[in-house]
Write a structure and sequence with these properties.
Elements: E1 18-21, H1 37-49, E2 54-58, H2 64-75, E3 81-87, H3 90-98, E4 103-109, H4 112-119, H5 123-140, E5 143-149, H6 156-169, E6 173-178, H7 185-198, E7 203-207, H8 214-224, E8 228-231, H9 245-255, H10 267-278, E9 295-296, H11 299-307, H12 319-322, E10 327-328, H13 336-345, H14 352-367, H15 374-385, E11 394-404, E12 407-417, E13 420-427, H16 431-442, E14 448-456, E15 465-472, E16 478-485, H17 488-506
Parallel strand pairs: 1-2, 1-8, 2-3, 3-4, 4-5, 5-6, 6-7, 7-8, 9-10
Antiparallel strand pairs: 11-12, 12-13, 14-15, 15-16
The structure holds 3-methyl-2-oxobutanoic acid and zinc ion.
Length: about 500
């Protein structure tokens, strides 16, 4: 079963582990995040489409709006089971039942510190409440998940007693939460092993990331035999967040050979959707989905990857597997092999001397802290190799954009396309969207905007901005281009026009 490199002999891991996603519940508790109703429905659809088994859609008792959202998600009739969270009180469970959920997830604090300071109940009272609330849930719905909150800081013998009570009362699965993220992977493995040996109920795990151990602890719990993992997209969640879905799934699938049923090729797309809705950008170095995961800049690495991709990539996880793409990037570490390969892909064959000059120019720009795109590379190469391009296929002549608080942002564009004048107008969600749609409306070929990134070069409202985009042509090839200036809309337009001319040139 094991496919990667893991040094252990005593695994109790299941061959299949199911995925419980709590992006819409714990993820939404990330400070500063509030998904809209439509966004929550869209995320739920996406989660079901990629094969998540259980979606924790929210905490219905927390507000009327939350209850309406959970009910609406259930009404979508998705392939995933829909779960609602409830404190161990009947009113909370009733709120879940009103939403017609498939599973109710009841929790109660069990560590002394949380029990005494949040619900002020004795250990014995918690056992009684656990027993009663699970019976109540099971009288109304088939699936009941029970969580002894702060399990990892709960006295071990008492935790076993709580879990046995829950199993006896009818819990269909017991979740072991590392609520404040203080467990170590070996501690988690010992804890789960002990519970698994002493409690007759399937187990699930929910790890917080306060020390950056959420994914490692989740995997340790899988090694010890949990049959389900709780995760969120992009690791969203309270404080430092929860275990990240993409990382947890890829470790299970690629390293351990455990089946999860998740459509891995949609992981990047899902991460980007949630990043857009949450406003939390994905760091380039984020495992699995980050921009840099399959990017190679340094000479030695690019050279190796050009010869054999597995030299400097895991191999058991490829860009295709997770819906990513491999890129040779141009920066201060770029080597001759990578530049030659990129130019050769565009049918440019510089002499050795010309190549040296091109590489030096690329490094010089990169050393000034600027990202060098393919469009920049071709311009440098054209001038170094003395190639004269007769004309640019897309020559922007005029652009006018109107926006305001009482109007739909509208853009009108006049451009020469292959020396013929075209005019087009479009509306959009904002001025950038309208401008880009107006330009794409003129281009004869089908071009899709795949990525759009904007960064301010310095603080302040007069900051310079740098826009980088990736577009896909009708053959599925991706092209990067950029634009910069002091106007966000015009910099975005410049990036798109550069990309269009780049595609035309490649063709
Ligand atoms: O972190 C936690 O303990 C929780 C529970 C509600 C499971 O989110
Ligand atoms: Zn949590």
């Amino acid at each position: 079963m094991l496919r990667g490199i893991a040094f252990f002999t005593d695994s109790h891991a299941h061959e299949e582990v199911t995925v419980f996603d709590t992006t819409l519940r714990d993820g939404e508790q990330t400070p500063g995040i509030a998904f809209t109703f439509e966004q929550k429905l869209e995320i739920a659809r996406q989660l079901a489409n990629i094969g998540v088994h259980v979606i924790e859609a929210g905490f219905p008792a927390s507000s009327i709006a939350e209850k309406e959202t959970v009910a609406a998600i259930k009404k979508l009739g998705l392939r995933a089971n829909i779960c609602g969270l409830a404190r161990s009180v009947k009113a909370d469970v009733d709120a879940c039942l009103d939403c017609d959920v498939d599973m109710v997830h009841v929790f109660i604090p069990t560590s002394d510190i949380q029990r005494e300071n949040t619900i002020n109940k004795t250990r014995e009272e918690v056992l009684v409440i656990t027993d009663e609330i699970i019976h109540y849930v099971r009288d109304h719905v088939n699936q009941c998940m029970f969580s002894p909150m702060d399990a990892t800081r709960t006295d071990g013998d008492y935790l076993l007693e709580v879990c046995r009570t829950a199993a006896h009362a009818g819990a269909t699965i017991i979740n072991i939460p590392d609520t404040v993220g203080v467990c170590s992977p070996s501690g988690m493995k010992t804890l789960i092993t002990r519970i698994a040996h002493n409690v007759n109920c399937p187990l699930d795990v929910h790890c917080h990331n306060d020390f950056g151990l959420a994914v490692a602890n989740t995997i340790a719990a899988v090694e010890a035999g949990v049959s389900q993992v709780q995760v969120t997209i992009n690791g969203l969640g309270e404080r430092a967040g929860n275990a990240d879905l993409a990382q947890t799934v890829m470790i299970m699938e690629s390293i351990y050979g455990i089946r999860t049923g998740i459509k891995k090729e949609r992981l990047v797309e899902t991460s980007r959707l949630v990043s857009r809705f949450s406003g939390i950008t994905i760091p380039p170095t984020q495992p699995v989905v980050g921009e840099n995961v399959f990017s190679h800049e340094s000479g030695i690495h690019s050279h190796g990857v050009i010869k054999c991709t597995e030299t400097f990539e895991p191999g058991i996880m490829t860009p295709e597997m997770v819906g990513h793409r491999r890129r040779l990037t141009l920066g201060k570490h770029v080597g001759r092999h990578a530049v030659r390969q990129m130019l050769s892909d565009a049918h440019l064959e510089p002499s050795d001397a010309q190549l040296d000059v091109i590489v030096e120019k690329v490094k010089a720009i990169a050393n000034r802290g600027k990202r060098v795109t393919e469009a920049d590379l071709y311009e440098i190469s054209d001038s170094t190799m003395g190639i004269e391009l007769n004309h640019k296929m897309f020559d922007l002549q005029d652009i006018a954009i109107m926006t305001g608080n009482h109007m739909i942002p509208t853009a009108s564009v006049k451009a020469q396309v292959n020396n013929k004048e075209h005019v087009f107008s479009a509306v959009g969600n904002g001025p950038v969207d309208a401008a880009l749609k107006a330009i794409l409306g003129i281009v004869p070929a089908r071009i899709q905007l795949k990525e759009f990134n904007i960064e301010a070069i310095a603080g302040g409202s007069d900051a310079m901005c740098h826009v980088t985009i990736a577009v896909e042509d009708e053959h599925g090839h991706i092209f990067d281009a950029s634009g910069s200036g002091d106007d966000i809309v015009l910099s975005s337009v410049e990036a798109l026009v550069n990309a269009i001319n780049l595609i035309n040139r490649a063709q």
